[in-house]
Amino acid sequence: MPVDRPTSDPRPNPTLVMVRGLAWDVGLPVAAYYALRLAGATDWVALLAASGIAAARTVWGAVRHRTLNQFAVLMLLVYGIGLLLAFVSGDPKALLLKSSLVTAAVGAVFLVTAILGGRPLTLAAAQSFLPARAEALSERYRSEPHVRRGFRLTSAVWGVGLLAEAVLRIPLVVLLPVDIGVGASEGLFVATFVALMVWNGWYIGRVLATPA
Hints:
Blueprint (H helix, E strand, L loop, with lengths): L13 H25 L4 H23 L4 H19 L3 H25 L4 H9 L4 H10 L1 H31 L2 H32 L3
């Protein structure tokens, strides 16, 4: 008599998929930037490398899935704007402060999309990470209030988190010596992104696993 074997769910775990996607889209440019800085590269070279990686991820996602990967675009903006500002400022403290301006602008975008509610940035990111489920996610966002609240909350948390990071960076840069300020501000940036990335993947995984 044949024995029935339990079949595994063929759908990917959304938490793992989102954390893996965020690690590639956010973590890879950040890792490249700091690895080059630790190796002695100039800020300009490190920014150029990080911008190039983010651009490659954006193009790859657009070609493969025929859609823009929102977090890859986000990182391209962060490092691309930083690269442009590196050309116009020779002051090390001013160059560090530009990161606060860029991060604050990105945080504001997250908050605006959360408040407007049409398509929070975290929903757009989830759709880019799970292209096969993009339509299903859109339908769940439209029809299930708890999914709608979940994506709007995560987008709001990203916005508040990035704005807080931008504000906390300013006294680190202004009050500390340049060498110490660089390490402190860069450590704050990495810690903020990692914390938001892991929490976002865990929370959205729980939201999507909850039935309507």
